[in-house]
């Protein structure tokens, strides 16, 4: 059935709706930006320099024999069995899909990722990182898709190593009975995982970008209500954008 052409009134109403949503989102953007700037102004040199011992990651691959390169990562011991999987299924899946080799030291958590394909190495590394940061392999393996990405935040970058402060910030992301995390996931269609001192996000690239800003805002002290409103308006903007693109 041919698509009916919009009337002038319908086109005008659509433009007005889009303008209102964009204007409201801009106001919320400013409120979110103010929270992030306030956090940046309050940061101390000590908190910036502190590192999370769990986030041991070598960003540069090491060249070994011939054209082969390797990444070396240390993962928490309680994630070793998860990375290997039942009867080695998860490990085999990563290796077969990325054409790399995983060498996992089951005693200390040292993982070596080796191969000749640069994209395969990077993808395998991201899957391993996601699993090491608490994600179920089912979610981590979504990173095999080219339009998915993974980001991780270190809570100590915001409050240092004070245990009570870390628990408080993790609580802001999780919310009562998991409410905050659930709302962020529903409005961004991304997956969040709070593990140790880190918060991880997996999803389509654009959705991860939105979820990242929401998490950063909450970590910086923005009220939950403001962040939820901003997410709702962002979602409406994306829907309008997708609808317009389909009509072109």
Tell me about this structure.
The chain is an alpha+beta fold and 248 residues long. It is built from 11 helices and 7 strands. The protein starts with 7 loop residues before the first helix and ends with a helix. The chain folds into 2 domains: 12-42 and 150-247, Ribosomal Protein S8, Chain: A, domain 1; 62-135, K Homology domain, type 1 (Ribosomal Protein S8, Chain: A, domain 1, 2-Layer Sandwich). Helix content is 56%, strand content 15%. The strands form 2 sheets. A 4-stranded antiparallel sheet has the order 1-2-4-3, covered by helices on one side. Strands 5-7-6 form a 3-stranded antiparallel sheet, with helices on both faces.
Q: Radius of gyration, Cα only, in angstroms?
A: 21 Å
Distance between the termini: 17 Å
The CATH class of the largest domain turns out to be Alpha Beta
Query: What structural category arises from helix and sheet content?
Result: alpha+beta
Count of domains: 2
Q: CATH fold name of the largest domain, please?
A: Ribosomal Protein S8, Chain: A, domain 1
Overall shape: it is globular
Sketch the major β-sheet.
Answer: 4 strands, antiparallel
Q: In which order are the strands of the major sheet placed?
A: 1-2-4-3
Short description:
The chain has 248 residues and is of the alpha+beta class.
Keywords:
3-stranded antiparallel sheet; 4-stranded antiparallel sheet; Ribosomal Protein S8, Chain: A, domain 1; alpha+beta; 248 residues; globular; 11 helices
């Amino acid at each position: 059935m041919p698509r009916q052409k919009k009337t002038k009134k319908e086109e005008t109403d659509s433009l007005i709706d889009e303008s209102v949503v964009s204007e409201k989102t801009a106001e919320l953007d400013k409120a979110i930006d103010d929270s992030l700037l306030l956090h940046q102004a309050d940061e101390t040199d000590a908190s910036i320099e502190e590192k999370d011992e769990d986030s041991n990651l070598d960003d540069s691959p090491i060249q070994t024999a011939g054209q082969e390169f390797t990444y070396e990562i240390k993962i928490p011991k309680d994630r070793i069995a998860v990375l290997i999987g039942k009867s080695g299924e998860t490990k085999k899946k990563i290796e077969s899909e990325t054409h790399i080799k995983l060498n996992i030291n089951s005693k200390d958590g040292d993982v070596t990722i080796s191969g000749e394909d640069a994209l395969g190495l990077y993808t395998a590394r991201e899957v391993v990182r996601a699993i090491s940061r608490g994600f179920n392999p089912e979610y981590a393996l979504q990173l095999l898709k080219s339009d998915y990405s993974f980001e991780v935040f270190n809570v100590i970058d915001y409050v240092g190593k004070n245990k009570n402060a870390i628990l408080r910030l993790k609580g802001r992301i999780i919310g009562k009975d998991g409410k905050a995390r659930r709302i962020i996931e529903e409005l961004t269609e991304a997956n969040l995982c709070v593990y140790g001192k880190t918060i991880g996000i997996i999803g389509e690239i654009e959705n991860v970008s939105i979820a990242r800003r929401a998490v950063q805002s909450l970590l910086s002290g923005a009220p939950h209500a403001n962040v939820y409103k901003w997410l709702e308006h962002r979602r409406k903007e994306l829907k309008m954008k997708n609808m317009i693109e389909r009509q072109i």
